[in-house]
Amino acid sequence: MASKVDDEVDTGVGQKTLVYLVRHGETDWNVERRFQGQLDVELSKNGLLQADALAQWLAVQPVTFSAIYSSDLKRAALTARIIGERLDLVPRLDPALREINVGEWQGLVASEIEDRFPGELEEWHEKIDTFTLPGGESIPLVQKRVFAAYQQMVERHPGEAIIIVSHGAALTALMAALHDWDLVDTWHTKRARMGNTHVSVAVFDHEHSKHEILLMDSGEHLEAPGDHGGTLDARPNEAAP
């Protein structure tokens, strides 16, 4: 792991909380670039292998984890369970960590969305800070609920290290909140993207109420990097798989 994380551990966390942010393992729908939203899609065979590799990697980190929190959707909850079995921790499931509800887009690929909702996919990309998906949520609403859950979790664990397992759009929105980044710029630059089972590490300083990112989007435990784009980059002219 990056030396900055090691330094934080070596000096003692004190009144800081170390947070390992994890995106769930791969699903077949990730590969197909199909919008999952809050549908309960299972991990693929590769996703299970990714989760196991991540669990082994986390088990040798120079910290002792006190808790694992996870979205209650299957793909995240199973990733968390595999990690928990390796670390001897039982994941705490929290619906606030769920992926964005994509409403009427759930189960569709980009070309199908364009056929049924002409122009809306492009509008979502260009107005990510205001656009509400038909029958679903907006990214600002997702950011609000995930950031609130994150704040509650770090407040419960001063001086400890925890793991949070969530989803691509939810974690991107959370990372933007931690940095106070503009949402549109964050989406267009892709600087907060995380691959499947990739890890970012944040530290929260309770005394100064400040966050610092120590590691971004690490997939060093994988033989091949996890998918970063998926539906977050889906465009209207894409053909169905």
Topology:
Layout: H1 3-10, E1 16-23, H2 28-32, H3 45-59, E2 65-70, H4 74-87, E3 92-93, H5 110-116, H6 120-126, H7 139-156, E4 161-166, H8 168-179, H9 183-189, E5 199-205, E6 210-218
Parallel strand pairs: 1-4, 2-3, 2-4
Antiparallel strand pairs: 1-5, 5-6
What is the H/E string?
HEHHEHEHHHEHHEE
What amount of the residues lies in strands?
Answer: 15-25%
Strand order of the largest sheet: 3-2-4-1-5-6
Rg on CA atoms, Å: 17 Å
Q: Number of DSSP strands?
A: 6
Q: How far do the termini sit from each other?
A: 36 Å
Sheet with the most strands, sense and barrel status: 6 strands, mixed
Name the quaternary structure: single chain
Q: What percent of residues adopt helix (DSSP H or I)?
A: 25-40%
Backbone structural class: alpha/beta
Q: Which spans of ≥5 residues are poorly predicted at pLDDT below 50?
A: 9-13
Mean pLDDT: 90
Shape: globular
Number of helical elements = 9
Describe the 3D structure.
This protein is α/β, with parallel strands linked by helices and 241 residues long. The chain is built from 9 helices and 6 strands, in the order H-E-H-H-E-H-E-H-H-H-E-H-H-E-E. A 6-stranded mixed beta sheet has the order 3-2-4-1-5-6, sandwiched between helices. Helix 3 packs parallel to helix 4 and helix 7 crosses helix 8. The radius of gyration is 17 Å and the shape is globular. It starts with a helix and ends in a 23-residue tail after the last strand.
